[in-house]
Amino acid sequence: MKFYFAFDSEESIKSKCTEITGMTYTQDLDEADVVFFGPKPQFGKKTRILQRLYAGTDDLDLSGIPSGITLLSNAGGYNEPVSETVFALLLSHYKKICKHNSDMHLGIFKKQEVETLFGKKIGIFGFGGIGQQVARTAIALGMEVSAFSRHRTEFPSVKWHSSLDSLAASVDILVVCTPLSPETRGIINAPLLSRFKGNCIVNIARANIVDQDAMLTYLFEHKDRFYLSDVWWNEPNIKTIPPENCIVTPHIGGNGGEYRNEAFARAFRNLKLYLDGNKHNVVKGA
After folding, report:
1. Is 283 exposed, middle or buried (0-12, 13-18, 19+ CB in 10 A)?
2. Residue 270 is part of which domain span?
């Protein structure tokens, strides 16, 4: 079998792919059995498998992919850097890093009141690879961890809830890690926010899991509540400026410098698993 990269790559990446999959590289798209791609899929005359390098596939037009081609995601490819971003946002908020840094750059030495994550109750909505990595870090920080997910995974020191409403009503911090789907679109809505008893929601997944109007109204009416997010509605075209009680980053959660090579290697391993009969990351096709 032959593979093609629909992105610029170094020879070392091609060699790693060959090492893991046993396939050979081709520069001719029409000769490729498998195409690895980033933003947009490409396929040639012989292509039978598309393996995305990104974790999610909700932005793809699946109708544009021929029925004879199988599409694979790279779910789990970026667990560690995305989880790190959750806690970068949380620590920035609770330690008031942004405010302190701005003051110090203005020559102002003023200590704001800060808080610790230790002992806080954190709820994780969506318990795939990222959710589990968030749980590991939270446990290490001495937090009380609860979760709700469509698929329950037994995990040490995690309390499970039977509904998202129940989870939201029992935690200080709610972290959104679930994929965007027709079922989760807008699920963080006004009724859910009215039941939330904590003061901080973190979105590390997709902007549209959160109802925009509901969240902006909630933040306007509750100045002591905070929304921390690595995603924003209509990105990269920012049509709504985040309110003061937000900390927002421009979808950099999966970025990690040298981690890129590890994420790509996970995509290669995912393809090898599929070829060996494991179909857990199949998005479309057989």
Report:
1. middle
2. 2-77+256-284
pLDDT in tens, 230-263: 999 999 999 999 999 999 999 999 887 788 899 9
Return the closest-CA partner of residue 181 out of 154, 216, 214, 206: 206
Please tell me whether residues 9 and 102 are part of one structural domain. no
Q: Rounded distance, CA 183 to CA 78, Å? A: 23
Q: SS3 for 5?
A: strand
| HEC secondary structure over 57-104 | CCCCCHHHCCCCCEEECCCCCCHHHHHHHHHHHHHHHHCCHHHHHHHH
Are 134 and 124 a contacting pair, CB within 8 Å?
Answer: yes
Q: Angle at the Cα of 173 (from 95 to 154), degrees rounded to 5? A: 125
Q: 174 and 120 in contact (C-beta within 8 Å)?
A: no
The pLDDT of residue 8 is 86
Q: Give the three-state DSSP class for 125.
A: strand
As given in the structure block, the two tokens for residue 75 are 């779910």
Residue 185: CATH number of its domain: 3.40.50.720
Return the minimum-mean-pLDDT range out of 54-58, 69-73, 222-226, 231-235: 54-58
